[in-house]
Amino acid sequence: MNKTYEQVLDGTYESRVLPFLWQKGESKEVIKEYLYKMKESNIHEVCIESRPHPAFCKDLWWEDLSFIIDLCKQLDMKVWLLDDSHFPTGYANGWIKEHYPEHRKTVLIHRMFDIVGPQTSASIYLKNPFDDSEVFYGALIIQNDHVQELTYQLRDDQIFFDVEAGHARICMLYTSRKSGYQDDYINMVDRASCEVLIKAVYEPHYEHFKEEFGKTILGFFSDEPGFMNEKGVNADSLIGKETMALPWSKELEDRWKQAMKEEHLCALASLWMDSEDAGRNRHQYMDIATRLYQECFDEQLGTWCRNHGVMHIGHVIEDKDSHARLGVGAGHYFRALAAQDMAGVDIVINQVLPGMDEGYHSYGRGAWDMEFFHYALAKLGSSLAHIDPLKKGRCMAEVFGAFGWHEGLKEMKWIADLFLVSGINYFVPHAFSQASFPDVDCPPHFYAQGHNPQFRYFSSLMRYLQQMGTLFSDGMPHPSAAVLYHAEGEWSGKFMPMQKVAKELTRHQIDFDFICADVFIDHKRYPMKLDEKGLCINGIYYQCFILPYNEYIGEATMQFLQDAKRYDFPVFILEEAPSHLYDRSDPITLPTFPILSLDQLSKTLHEQGLFDHQTSSYEPWLRYYHYTKGNEEYHMFVNVHPKQTIETSIPGLKGKRIDVYTKESYAFEEDLLLGPYGSCIIVENEGGETPYTFGTTYLRIDGAWKLSYASAQAYPQFHDTKTLHKLVDLSTIYPSTCGTFRYEIDFDCPMDIEQALLHIEEGYETIQVWLDDIDLGYRITPVYQYEIDRLTQGKHHLSIEVTNTLDKEIHDMFSLSEPSEPSGLFGPVEIRKRS
C-alpha cells in the first residue's frame, strides 16, 4: 500500500479549501458559471457569503440558496454558510433593531466633573440630550486619591450633594445603548441577546434545509464578531483607556458584584483610572467579560450547530492585538473560539509581505505591526488547534483577501507556505466575487468574470492547498516550547507581547505553541498533565515552558511553576520575574528559574538540547515545521525571503525531499538549498533519486525575441507582435496592460546534454514554457527552472509565456499604498547542466 505522501502526490487527498462565494443578488446563470469554475479549480467546498444579498433570509435568498445547494449536490460539492446578512457577524440580520430593541448592545460609560470644595448642595443634571438611552447607574467621589460612593439626594432629574474642602472629582456612571459603533448589534455578554442571532439566521436556515444539514451543508462561519464597544481597529482598545465605553449586561453586573462584594461600585473607577488595585480590578472585569463572551456567544452557537449536525467555525479580529482586547476584538482569543470546531485566523490588507517581517507597514489607514502577522498570527490559530481536543488539530485561515490586484499567484503561494509551515491546514480563500468586473470590493477576485489572466493556473494552487492540508491533518505536531499567551498579563499590567518571543524562536527554527493560562485551570477543556515525562497538553509533549515578562500572573500559573520545579521541568522567564498575582492579593511565591534576556533564549535552548533540528548556520528567513502522520515524519522548510537563497545544512536529517507543488522529489542528506519563495517537505528516512540542484550555467539564450500579447479573455489568441532585442520591463512597452506575454526564440545547442535544466532567473510573474512545442510546465513562484530529460545538439524553438497581475490595468484602493512589480521576463534565460 502506498504511503500517505505518495497517495497525495498521486491525486488522492481530502478537501481542505472552502473559498467565499459572494452573493449580491446575481442571476442563476452567473451563480452556475462560478460554481463550475470553482469545481474546475480543484475546489470541493464553498462558503456562501451575503455581501450583502438584497433579500437575505427572504424568498429570493432561499431560492438562490436552494439553487446553489442543488447544483453543489450535482457537482459533489459541500456548502458552508456565513452566518449573517453582512460581516461582521452580530447584526443578526437586523432583528435587534426591528424585533428585539431591548436586547441591543449595552455599554457602561462615565463622565467626570471637577469641583472645588467646600461646596454644599452641588448638583449634576442626569439627562443627556444627545443620548436618550442613558440610564444613571451610580456616582463616585475621588478626593485625596481616595474613591468612595457619593452621598447624594435624587430630585427629579438631578442629584444634589456636598463636597468637603479641596479639589474633588465626581465620576458619574451610566449605562447606554450607544457606543458609537454597531449600536444595533447583539450584546456579546448577554445570553438572550446572542440568541437573537440564532433565531434570525440559524433557525430559518435549518427550517428551509434541515435535510441537508450534516450532508451538503457542513456548517456556519462567524466572521469577525467582537464586543464592538468602540469604533475602529485601534492599537489602544485596552481596558484602562479613559474614554472607552465598556461592555455591560445584567449577567456581567451580577458577576462583577459577586466578585467585588461591597467594593463593586467603587472598583469600577479603576477600569478607567489608575489606582493601587487597578491591575487586579481590570483583570477581574476582563475575565468576567471574556468568559461571558465565550458562554453567551461562542458556546451557544457551537452547541446549537453540533445539536443540528453541523460545525461552527470562523475567526475574530486579531489585528493590532485585538485578539486580547476590547473594541472590535473579543478580549481573549482562546475563549472567543472555545466552542468552534476549528481554530481560525485571517490575513488581509497586506498584513504579510515577503521580506517585511518587522517594523510597521503603512496600509493607507494606519500601520500594521508586521512582527505580529509574520510570527504570531498563524501560530495563535494552530496553537489552539493543537491544545483543544474539540478542534481535532484543525485550524482554518482566511487568506488572500483585500491585498489588491497586485497580489498574484506568486504572493498567494508564498502566503500559503507561510501559513502551512505555521501549522494551518484549512484555507478559506477570499474571494470569488460574482459582481460585474471590476468589483471594487476588496480585490483580488480569483475568476473576475474571466478577466483575471492568472486564473487558468489557480487550480494548481488550490490542489496544492488540498494536498498540503491533507498531509498536515490527523497527525501530531512537535512544538518544542510552550509560550504563555499574553492576554491576562496585558489586562493587568506591564507585559511582553508574545510576538517578540515568537520571532526569536521562529528565526532559530524552534517550534512552539502559545498556551493560555486557562490550560492550568480547566483540565476538562485542555487535557493537561505535568509529570516526570514533562508537560503534556492534549497529547503533545513540550520540552520547556517560556514565561515572557508579565508583571501579573494568576495563582494557577504560579502553582504550575511550583510543580514544574518539583519535576525539574525546564522553565525560562524572560527579562524579569512576575511580581504580583492578578487573582489574589497575597504575595507571589515563585521558585527560582533562569531569567534570560530575549536574545539569550534561543541560544540557551540550543545549548540545553531543547529543540528538534538546528541548522548549521543562522538562517532568520528559514521557517520549519515537523509533523508526524502515521509512521511518516514530515519536515517542512520554507524560505520566506523574496530575493535571497538559503544554503545551509541540517545535521542528522536524511530522507526524500519533495516539492508537493511541482511533484519533484530527490534524495536529501543534510544539505538544504532553497531559492527565494522556495518550500519543500523532507520525508524522513525515505529514499530518493539524485539530490536537487540549481545546476551550473552552460548556455545563455540571447538574441532577438519575438514578443506578442493576449488578454485574459482573448487567450490563447496572441496579437500585437513586436521584436525585442533586450529583456526589459514590459510596462514600458505595454503600459497599463494586463495579460499574457509570449516570448519566442530559436537557439542552437552545441552538444547533447542529459538531464538539462532550463533556468529563468527573473520573471513577473507566472511562467509557462514550451520547448519544441513540448509543454515543460509552469511555475507560479521562483525558482523558474524546468527539467529537460535530454537536450539534443542542434536548433531548438523556445516559447515562454509570462502572465502579470491586474494592478497594471485596474487601480484599486490598495494601490494607494502598495507598489507594483514589473511585467515580463528579466532573464537571464539559461540552459544549465546538473552539477
Give an account of the 3D structure.
This protein is an alpha/beta fold and 835 residues long. It is built from 16 helices and 45 strands. It has a six-stranded parallel β-sheet with strand order 11-9-3-2-1-17. It is globular. It starts with a helix and ends with a strand. The model has no long low-confidence stretch (mean pLDDT 96).
Please tell me how large the radius of gyration is: 29 Å
What does the oligomeric state look like here? single chain
Structural class: alpha/beta
Distance between the termini: 35 Å
List keywords for this structure.
six-stranded antiparallel β-sheet; alpha/beta; 22% helix; 835 residues; six-stranded parallel β-sheet
Short description:
The protein is of the alpha/beta class.
Fold blueprint:
Layout: H1 4-9, E1 20-23, H2 28-40, E2 45-50, H3 59-75, E3 78-82, H4 95-98, E4 107-125, E5 135-143, E6 146-149, E7 153-155, E8 158-176, H5 191-209, E9 217-223, E10 246-247, H6 250-260, H7 278-307, E11 311-315, H8 333-336, E12 343-348, E13 360-362, E14 367-369, H9 370-375, H10 377-387, E15 395-401, H11 409-420, E16 426-429, E17 432-433, H12 455-471, E18 476-477, E19 481-484, H13 487-492, H14 498-506, E20 512-515, E21 528-531, E22 534-537, E23 540-542, E24 544-547, E25 552-553, H15 555-566, E26 571-574, E27 580-581, E28 595-596, H16 601-607, E29 622-629, E30 632-639, E31 646-659, E32 664-674, E33 679-684, E34 696-700, E35 705-710, E36 719-724, E37 740-749, E38 753-760, E39 763-764, E40 766-771, E41 774-779, E42 784-791, E43 794-803, E44 824-825, E45 829-833
Parallel strand pairs: 1-2, 1-17, 2-3, 3-9, 9-11, 12-15, 15-16, 19-20, 19-24, 24-26, 25-27, 26-28
Antiparallel strand pairs: 4-8, 4-10, 5-6, 5-8, 7-8, 13-14, 18-29, 21-22, 22-23, 29-30, 30-33, 31-32, 31-33, 34-45, 35-36, 35-37, 37-43, 38-42, 38-45, 39-44, 40-41, 40-43
Helix pairs in contact: 2-3, 5-7, 6-7, 11-12
